[in-house]
């Protein structure tokens, strides 16, 4: 399966990058964990769990980090909705953007 990052994921990706730039001693472990999470997701998209009861939206933890990947699947593509920081509620905006606009735009 291929992975496509939706516009709603940009802020989450930027936040995760900034977080690890400010904590360089954690960066290498986080980068490996992030890559492993994407590989596992690509190989088996059902590894995630349902996110907040929202139909079609799943969450896959990025081990050894406070982050997770929010995503949906259609055909052979995994659409990343957000990179979620589990310590906050910032994903609300990304999920709202997905349910109100991006779901229709991408016919998901």
Question: What structural class is derived from the secondary structure elements?
Answer: alpha+beta
How many alpha or pi helices?
3
- Strand-residue fraction? 25-35%
Q: CATH topology, what is it called?
A: YaeB-like fold
Span between N and C termini? 16 Å
User: Mind telling me the CATH class?
Assistant: Alpha Beta
**Number of beta strands:** 5
Low-confidence blocks of residues = none
State the helical fraction: 40-55%
Physical arrangement of strands within the biggest beta sheet: 1-5-4-3-2
What's the shape? globular
Order of helices and strands: EHHEEEEH
Largest sheet: 5 strands, mixed
- Give the tally of structural domains: 1
Radius of gyration: 13 Å
Under the CATH scheme, the architecture is 2-Layer Sandwich
Subunit organisation of the chains:
single chain
CATH homologous superfamily (4th level) name: RelE-like
Mean pLDDT: 92
Quick rundown:
By secondary structure, the protein is an alpha+beta fold.
List the helices and strands and how they pair.
Elements: E1 2-5, H1 10-21, H2 24-43, E2 49-50, E3 58-61, E4 67-74, E5 77-85, H3 91-105
Parallel strand pairs: 1-5
Antiparallel strand pairs: 2-3, 3-4, 4-5
């Amino acid at each position: 399966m291929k992975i496509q990052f939706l516009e709603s994921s940009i802020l989450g990706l930027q936040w995760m990058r900034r977080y690890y730039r400010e904590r360089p001693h954690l960066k290498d472990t986080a980068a490996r964990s992030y890559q492993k999470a994407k590989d596992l997701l690509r190989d088996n998209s059902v590894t995630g769990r349902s996110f907040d009861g929202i139909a079609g939206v799943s969450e896959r933890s990025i081990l050894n980090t406070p982050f997770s990947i929010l995503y949906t699947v259609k055909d052979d593509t995994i659409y990343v909705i957000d990179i979620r920081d589990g310590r906050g509620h910032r994903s609300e905006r990304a999920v709202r953007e997905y349910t109100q606009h991006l779901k229709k735009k991408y016919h998901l």
